[in-house]
Amino acid sequence: MSEKIDDKEAALQKKQCDDCYKYRDNLLKTSPAVIFMSQQIEKLAQTHPKYRQQIEHINKQIFSKLEEKTNDESEKSKSPIFIPSKHLICDICPDNTKLAGFHPDLGVLICANHITKSTSFLLESSITHELVHYYDNMRFKVDLSNLKHHACTEIRASMLSGECSWSYEFFRKFSTFKMFGGFKDCVKRRAALSVSYNPICESKEMAEKAVDEVWNSCFGDTRPFDDVYFG
Ligand SMILES: [Zn+2]
């Protein structure tokens, strides 16, 4: 009996992962934000060996065989380093707090078991959010044991991913959302919520304080985008 349930569960998880990869592949082809962030990460990696090494470190953890494929150094420097189809992985997530996550050693994980018909449209902003973390970790070496570092990357990810556009807020039923003021409030609220999940964060107030302390410098930093679309 239990074996049957396990088979059923395994089949369900396989279907969830297959669907997740379909959503992901579609976004890699059609989403301007996901494509742009992926290109910017690749551009960083091509610009400086220290950035390149960070991605190669992730590569080693997740697909060591690919590393071995090219031994010719001149060939290596020409080939893409950040390969979105390899660095954005679909898998089953144990907790249900989010649709995707970033780990400095493993890259971006998309939670296949949390994608439903009603949440799939949030996937574009979720992946863009994690790619901003990816970019920040390369560029600024984010230290997650420092809440100010964590707050800064969360402010930027919420601001740049589009997750605070009015349509997403409407979906979250914040019906009093007002343009611009509402955008800032949303970025602040979501950044503080993410910081509050950091194991070293002791309270909601501590998370809000960290966000307030870095707000001016991080909310003003839209790199690698020129500007933010507030719609
Ligand atoms: Zn985040």
UniProtKB/TrEMBL annotation:
The entry assigns this protein to a family as follows: Belongs to the peptidase M76 family.
Briefly state the protein's biological role: Has a dual role in the assembly of mitochondrial ATPase.
Q: Provide a GO CC annotation, any one.
A: mitochondrial inner membrane
UniProt key word Hydrolase? yes
Stretches of the chain forming a coiled coil according to its record: none
Name the keywords, alphabetized.
Hydrolase, Membrane, Metal-binding, Metalloprotease, Mitochondrion, Mitochondrion inner membrane, Protease
Q: Among its keywords, does the record have Metal-binding?
A: yes
Q: Cite a single Pfam family from the UniProt record.
A: Peptidase_M76
Question: Where in the cell?
Answer: Mitochondrion inner membrane
How does it sit in the bilayer? Peripheral membrane protein
What protein name applies here? Mitochondrial inner membrane protease ATP23
Principal subcellular localization: mitochondrion
Q: Where does the record locate the signal sequence feature?
A: none
InterPro entries associated with the record: Peptidase_M76_ATP23
What Gene Ontology molecular-function terms does this entry list? metal ion binding; metalloendopeptidase activity
Q: Which GO terms describe its biological process?
A: mitochondrial protein processing; mitochondrial proton-transporting ATP synthase complex assembly
Specify the superkingdom: Eukaryota
EC number(s) on file: 3.4.24.-
